[in-house]
Specification:
alpha/beta
Length: 386
């Protein structure tokens, strides 16, 4: 009699053991593997969910690397279409390319160079320059021969409009779409910007800046006044090294911001200063400061166009930042188009921006927003359509 009971007990033990083993396997599969890498399908779903939502059909199709290129304005070496740098630039869909004095050898050669830069199978770049006037122009054989200070002495809005219109017509005729112009800073004669500014009177600078922008519009050239929120009171030229605008916010608002507020609805783009503004951030250049690039420019002034940084290769930046780190800070702060004049300074910038977005240091939505604004300006200028 005891044998059947023993066989029953052994059978029950075997069943229980099997159930325990099965349960352990399920636990290992469902719980311990919970921290393991998800299957490829899950990874793809997660990646798609993190993609920034964009209403722009071009931005939606772009990779992160392509969006990064769209927020860069790069200078280059060379004076003709066969230069290696020119080939490198045209193989990318950049936001803008910057023609500097060393690239320009004359009108005929310059036109060929501009035309070659604009040749792109995808989204063409804005071809930009800095043509302020007089000795402050990159293209010496094109107008205007007069400086802003010369126009300011007359104080005539009509003269400012004609001055800018002549300049814009010549640049548009040579194939340009963007001029970093006019200087909208309020500057006294002892300012580092004295020769480049209209006047030391905020109302007069505002009137002449608006008139100059009207002249740009007449020739369908985008002009970007500079240097927001005002560089006239800087301790030195930001190209040379760190500079401070030691004005409190009330003075800055009543003086330096007046021309930018007046022109903010007409200007398609603005160039942001690299000076230090202690009321916002005593150690961070303006274009790299969220308080300036977003809080003041977007929230207070209400500017809707493209925010362009001044050249991040300037001494005001490189004294304390590497250019790639400065580019990441500028994009994160609210800049849409990052200007780097020297090709040597651009090394590693695109990679740093791409890595910053992928790591979460810069939100994907911020990059998408910047690329959208650049593309909208290109649409307004007839460079692309949808």
């Amino acid at each position: 009699m005891p044998l059947p009971s023993l066989r029953f007990a052994m059978r029950r033990f075997a069943v229980v053991t099997a159930l325990v083993l099965i349960g352990g396997a399920v636990w290992i599969f469902l719980i311990r593997d919970n921290g393991a890498a998800p299957p490829p399908e899950a990874k793809d779903r997660e990646r798609v969910e993190r993609e920034p939502v964009s209403d722009d059909p071009i931005v939606r199709k772009m990779s992160t690397a392509e969006r990064v290129d769209q927020v860069l304005m790069l200078g280059f070496e060379g004076t003709d279409p066969g230069a290696p740098d020119v080939g490198d630039l045209t193989s990318r869909e950049l936001g803008a390319v910057l023609i500097r004095a060393e690239n320009w050898t004359g009108l005929d050669a310059g036109k060929r160079l501009v035309a070659s830069l604009a040749q792109n199978d995808g989204v063409p770049p804005l071809v930009a320059t800095s043509q302020e006037g007089g000795i402050y122009r990159s293209l010496q054989n094109l107008p205007p021969p007069e400086r802003a200070l010369d126009i300011g002495r007359d104080g005539s809005p009509e003269a400012a409009r004609a001055w800018a219109s002549e300049t814009a017509e010549a640049l548009a005729g040579a194939g340009f779409q963007l001029n970093l112009f006019p200087v909208a800073d309020v500057a006294t004669l002892d300012s580092p910007l004295a020769g480049r500014a209209f006047s030391d009177d905020p109302a007069e600078v505002a009137t002449l800046t608006e008139a100059a922008l009207e002249g740009c519009e007449e020739s369908d050239l985008a002009c970007a006044p500079l240097h927001f929120p005002g560089l006239g009171a800087a301790s030195q030229d930001t190209a040379e090294g760190p500079a401070t605008v030691a004005l409190d916010l009330v003075t800055l608002t009543d003086r330096d911001l007046v021309p930018f507020k007046a022109s903010s609805k007409r200007a398609p783009a603005l160039v942001l200063s690299l000076a230090l503004y202690p009321d916002f951030d005593a150690v961070t250049p303006g274009a790299l400061s969220p308080g300036v690039a977003t809080g003041l420019l977007r929230d207070e002034v209400g500017f809707k166009g493209v925010a362009i940084s001044d050249d991040l290769g300037s001494g005001a930046v490189t004294a304390t930042y590497s250019v790639p780190k400065a580019a990441v800070a500028a994009l994160d702060a609210g800049v849409d188009l990052i200007q780097i004049g020297s090709p040597e300074d651009a090394d590693g910038v695109a990679e740093a921006l791409e890595n910053a977005v992928k790591s979460g240091e810069v939100e994907p939505e911020r990059l998408a927003e910047a690329a959208e604004r650049v593309l909208d300006l290109k649409r307004d200028l007839g460079l692309i359509d949808d």
